[in-house]
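Board work, copied verbatim: Putative insertion sequence transposase protein
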Amino acid sequence: MSERDLRRIEVLSDVRAGRRTVAAAAAVLAISARQAFRLLARYEADGGSGLIHKARGRISNRSHNEGIRNYAVELVKTRYADFGPTLATEVLLDKHQLRIGKETLRRWMMAEGLWLSRTQRRTFHQPRLRRESYGELVQIDGSDHRWFEQRGEPCTLLVFIDDATSKLTQLRFVPSESTDSYFEALQGYLQVHGCPVAFYSDKHTVFRVNKPDAKGGQGMTQFGRALAELNIEILCANSSQAKGRVERANRTLQDRLVKELRLANSSDMAAGNEFLPGFLERFNEKFALAPARTENLHRRLNVQASQLTDILCHRELRHVSQQLSLAYDRRQILLERSELADKLPGQYVEVYDFADRPPEVRWKGHLLPYGVFSRDQRVSHTATIENKRLSHALTIVRAQQELKRPTTVLTSSAKGGYMKRGRKLYGPDYVEKPPAPKAVEICKIAKCGDFTHSHSTTATALY
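↓ predict structure ↓
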């Protein structure tokens, strides 16, 4: 018997003993007085068992046949195992004429282990232990924020943090989270600390190729190519929780660093980057931890400065046409004629695109002089802009729109020198008018006083 049935037996016993009226019992049991009389009659006739619901333990009148249940479950198990209850219900009705409620089918699938409830589908992120050595794993990320509050424009802070010690190893303000920005921050990191074993990042397109089966490209990003040449591994986290150390550091910096910049009256990226080294040292003194193992796994950077610059830049292969031309970054590049360049049609050359100087075209280490045939400084129409770079892209567009003057579109006739003239009417009585006299002749006529009607009329018109 349920708790409700036991409560009814207790109250109705009081009614039979005269300690409670039927109206009071109905109020206590939250039922009508008529229902209270019915229950009292059943209690007096059959005792406590008479209060149990008559349908308890019986098969529902709306239940499905056991054969139908087994047939539907077998279909779902063999053909529609990947379908959810809602879609499987529609398919069974459409293809097999089985009208089954989706909640009924959900219960059947859960009983057979074909479907998990929302509670069963919950995933838990187990905490990951720190790496044991300094320089074994460095987490990197960019945080887009109003670091200078209303004193300056929003920008991005690139954060490098060691996984073993929670030590901030590199901080840099940049316009957006781009490949050039990470090249700049990586160069500063390598010159100070050396080469770590691996970097740990998110799935941003700077670090990971979203379409590995694309026809173009080398199968890796420019940042990945540079790390491969430096013998540094790049690993991408599957979730933000996996690289929680740098995520929590971003949240801490958005609180502490903003206040420090306000006290230092820093209002732009240049002043902020000058302030960061001192802040980084104070932050590490307070929050950095000792590693489990004392060895430092950073390797020495055995690369010259010029070679490091060649590594930390955009490098792409371009095909040279028979006219000694190649296309790069919406520009047509023409190689200058030389004994070496004349051998390059049909070959591939490598374009080195630096952040602080014009691009260079090289073939097997030889620098090739060139000229630019066409130059397009405009942001490409319908260009794909990532969310993290949208603010920076809009800033560039606004600056270009302010500098660009409106241009007049010329027609083909105007380009050929066509000048619009008045309309001429030609007929059978058309007589060509004599050319108008020159101004000198008119002056002479006026001086001598010989004014005829035609001369005076012409002179008046010209005056």
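The two ends are 123 Å apart (CA to CA).
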